[in-house]
Amino acid sequence: MSSPFRFDPVQMPDVEPQLRAEVREFLAEWTPKFTPWKIGHSWTGLDREFSKAVGARGWIGMTWPREYGGHERSALERYVVIEEMLAAGAPVGAHWIADRQSGPLILRVGTETQKKKWLPLICSGEATFCIGLSEPDSGSDLASVRTRATRDGDGWRLSGRKIWTTNAHHAQAMIALVRTSGGPDDRHKGLSQVLVDLSLPGVEIRRIADMTGEAHFNEVTFDDVQLGPDALVGVEGAGWAQGMSELAFERSGPDRFLSAFPLMPLLVDEIAAAGEPDRLSARAIGRTLAELAALREMSVCTAGMLDRGEDPAQEAAVIKEVGVTLEQRMPEMVRDLAPGALPGAVEGDLAEMRAAVAQQAPTFSLRGGTREIMRGIMAKGMGLR
Amino acid sequence: MSLDTDTATLLADQLDRLFAQKVDAKLLRKVEAGEPAAALEAEVEALGLTLALVPEEAGGAGLAWSEIGGVLESLGRFVAPLALAERMAAGWAMAKAGMEVPEDVPLATWDRLTLSGDKVSGTATIPFGRPGAKVLATAGEGEAAKLVLLEIPEGRALPTIGRDPRLLVEFASAAPLASAPDPMGGEALPAALAVVRAGQIAGAINHALAESIDYGNTRVQFGRPIGKFQAIQHLVAEQAGEAAAAKAAVQLALRGMDEAPSWQAAAVAKIRAGLAVEPVSAVAHAVHGAIGVTEEHMLHHTTRRLWQWRDEAGDENAWSERLGRAAIAGGGGELWKTVVALSGGR
Ligand SMILES: Cc1cc2nc3c(=O)[nH]c(=O)nc-3n(C[C@H](O)[C@H](O)[C@H](O)COP(=O)(O)OP(=O)(O)OC[C@H]3O[C@@H](n4cnc5c(N)ncnc54)[C@H](O)[C@@H]3O)c2cc1C
C-alpha cells in the first residue's frame, strides 16, 4: 500500500482568475461593513442582506440547474467563490449550509415539489437551512436518534427534540434525521430524512447561549408537528446512507481549515509593524502557509472527486482532522507572536477577532463530527477497526 | 514528447520490484559501513532513470516532474541506498541551464559555494560522494549565480544519523569542469533537491504508516491485536493525517516544478513533509514497542533516514523562515493570494 488516501489533481477552469477577481472586488465593498468580532465568526456569522447580495451575483447554488434558480457552473468555480468568502471572513451563515449540503441533497434525492419550492429561495439568499442531527442523548452516536416521524394519512407526524442546531432561529427549514420505523436497537435501519418547515405549528425554537455570550445554536422541539406528504427527503429508511454521503461535502471543504484564517493577515501586519521580524515569528508564518497550501491541495482534489460522483469519505475525514488542528492553533499563534497586547484585553482589531475565534476554537473539532470520530473513521478505512 | 503516465507508473513498479528484491538489511548495513551498493547502482543505471528529468532532445527520458512521484516514493519506501534522487535533480538542473548532461549524471550538493572570477570555494556535503567523481553545485548568488560541475576532492566521511555515506569536502579556488548561469538565479539545484528529498520523505512516511497498520493488526496483547485498542487506532490516524498532508504537498510541488519551477514550490513540499517526520516516526516507534528500536528490526532504517532527510536540502525551519519573511514583507493584504499561489491557484 502506498497511501490509504487518494488526491487526484484537478484542472481548475480557465475563468478562475477572472472569477476570483470578481469575488474579491465584491468582498472589498462588503467586508469593511463587518466588525472584527463578526469576521471572527466565519461561516456561522450571518447577515441576510449580504447573502441576498451574494445570491444576486449568482454565487449560491452555482452548480445547480437553471430551472431551479441555479447557474450550471462547475464545482471548481464554486470552490473559488467559497474559499474567497472564507478567506475574507464574510458572514455567509444565512446561505452556507443550504448551499453546501441541504440544497445538493434536495437536488439529488428530493421531490420535484421540494426542488421547485426550496432551491430558488436558497439561490436568492432568502432561505436558510439548518441541520437536525444531534439530540440531547444522541451526539456522536447519531444512529441512536429518537425523534420520530410516523405516518399519518398522506403525511407524517413529528415528535422529538433536536439540539445544537446552528442558526435554527434564522432558518426557514431543517433537514432532520429521524426514526420512521423500528427502535434504537435497529441502529442504521429505519432512519429517514425529513424536511421540516420551521414555521409550522408545534415547532418551538429555543436559543442556547454559548460562551461567547451570544446564542448561535438552538434547541428545536417538535410537539406533534403535522408534516405534509412531501416532507420525506429521498427514500424512506435510507436516511443514514443519505446523511453519510452529505458528510463528505460537509467535511472536506475549505470551511475546515479557513474558519480562523482572517486572523493571519492581521497578525502578519502586526509582526511587520514591530520591525524586522524575529526568526521564530517568520518560521511560524512560513510553516502555516505550507500547511495551508497542502490542505488546499487536498481539499481541491477532493472537490474534484465529489464532482465526479465519487465518495471520498476517508479523504474528507483526513482533511477535517488535519484542517481543524491547524485552525485551532491560529488564535494561539496570535497570542504567541503578536507583540504588545494588554494582558487578556480585547482591544484593537486583532485582539477582538482573536477573542471571537478563541472562544469558538474548541468547537472546530466538535461540530461536523468530533476529532475522535474522525480518527475512528480513518482507522476503519485503514483496516484497523 | 514526454512519456505518458502509464510508462511512469511502469517505471516506478519496476523500481519497486527491484528494491523489494535487493534492498534488505544486509545491503543497508553494508552501505552504512561505507561500501557502495555497486550492483544495485548498476541495475538502476540500466533503467536510465538518472536521466529521467532530462528532455529527450538533450539525451534524456523526458519525464515530467509530476511523473516521477512514484519513483521518489519508491526510493523513500525502500530507503534505497543510492544517489538516484540527487542525480535526477542534477540532470534536470543541468539541462535547464543548457549544460550538456553526461550519461554518467553527476552527484549533487545543496550547499552554496562562493564564486570569485571563475573559481569556486566553500564547504559541501555530498550524498554518496566519492573522490574523483563529479558533483553539481550552485556557486554565487542571484543574477550572478552559476551551476558548476566539479571534480570531487578528497574529503572526510561525515557521520550522520541516517548513516548513508555523506562526504564533506572543501573546495579552495577550484576550477569547474563546466559551468553555466543558473536559470533560476541560484535556486535551481537547491529547489530540485528539496523537492526530491520531500518526495523520498513522503514515501518513507507512507511506509512507516503501512508498517504501523500491519503491526497493529498482527501483534497480539491482552488477547487481541493491539490495533483493536482505540488508543492505537487514534495514534495511527494521526500518523495518517500527516502522511496525507506530506504526500499532497509533494504532489503540489511536482506539478509546480513542471509549470513554473520556484523555490516557493520546493519550500512548501520540504516544509510540510519535514513537519510530518517527527509525529509519524514517533507514532511508528510507539506502536512497534521495543522490537522497533532493535538493530535487527527494519523500522530504524526508515526513521533514521527520515530524521536525516528532513535536515537535508534545507530543513523545514530554514524554508519556513524564508517563506515567512517573504510573506511578512508582502503584508497581510497579500497573504491569502500567497496561499492560493502556493497551492497552484490563480
Ligand atoms: C458550535 C457547534 C455547532 C453545532 N451545530 C450543529 C448543527 O447545526 N446540527 C447538529 O445536528 N449538530 C450540531 N452540533 C453538534 C455536534 O455535531 C456534536 O457536538 C458532535 O457530534 C458531538 O456530540 P456531543 O456534543 O453530544 O458529544 P459526545 O458525543 O457526547 O462526545 C463527548 C466526547 O466523547 C467522545 N466520544 C464519543 N463517542 C466516542 C467514541 N465512540 N470513541 C471515542 N470517543 C468518543 C467525543 O469525541 C467527545 O470528545 C454542533 C456543535 C457545536 C459545538
UniProtKB/TrEMBL annotation, chain A:
Listed GO MF terms: acyl-CoA dehydrogenase activity; flavin adenine dinucleotide binding
Any one annotated GO CC term: plasma membrane
PROSITE patterns noted in UniProt: ACYL_COA_DH_1
Cofactor: FAD
Domain Acyl-CoA oxidase/dehydrogenase middle per the UniProt entry, residue ranges: 130-225
One Pfam family recorded for the sequence: Acyl-CoA_dh_M
InterPro entries xrefs: Acyl-CoA_DH_CS, Acyl-CoA_Oxase/DH_mid-dom, Acyl-CoA_Oxase/DH_mid-dom_sf, AcylCoA_DH/ox_N, AcylCoA_DH/ox_N_sf, AcylCoA_DH/oxidase_NM_dom_sf, Mycobact_Acyl-CoA_DH
Residue ranges constituting the Acyl-CoA dehydrogenase/oxidase N-terminal domain according to the UniProt record: 17-126
Alphabetized UniProt keyword annotations: FAD, Flavoprotein, Oxidoreductase
Gene3D superfamilies, per the entry: Acyl-CoA dehydrogenase/oxidase, N-terminal domain, Butyryl-CoA Dehydrogenase, subunit A, domain 2, Butyryl-CoA Dehydrogenase, subunit A, domain 3
Keyword Ligase found: no
Domain of life: Bacteria
Database matches in SUPFAM superfamilies: Acyl-CoA dehydrogenase NM domain-like
Matching PANTHER family: ACYL-COA DEHYDROGENASE, ACYL-COA DEHYDROGENASE FADE34
Name the UniProt record assigns to this protein: Acyl-CoA dehydrogenase
From TrEMBL, chain B:
Acyl-CoA dehydrogenase/oxidase N-terminal domain mapped to chain residues: 6-98
Cofactor(s) needed for function: FAD
A Gene Ontology molecular function term of the record: acyl-CoA dehydrogenase activity
Coiled-coil portions: none
Gene3D superfamilies: Acyl-CoA dehydrogenase/oxidase, N-terminal domain, Butyryl-CoA Dehydrogenase, subunit A, domain 3
The keyword Flavoprotein is annotated on this UniProt entry: yes
InterPro entries, per database record: AcylCo_DH-like_C, AcylCo_DH/oxidase_C, AcylCoA_DH/ox_N, AcylCoA_DH/ox_N_sf, AcylCoA_DH/oxidase_NM_dom_sf
Pfam families xref list: Acyl-CoA_dh_1, Acyl-CoA_dh_N
Key words, A-Z: FAD, Flavoprotein, Oxidoreductase
Source domain of life: Bacteria
Annotated signal sequence range: none
Domain Acyl-CoA dehydrogenase/oxidase C-terminal: 197-305
Record flagged with keyword Flavoprotein: yes
Family of the protein in this entry: Belongs to the acyl-CoA dehydrogenase family.
Full protein name: Acyl-CoA dehydrogenase
Species of provenance: Albimonas pacifica
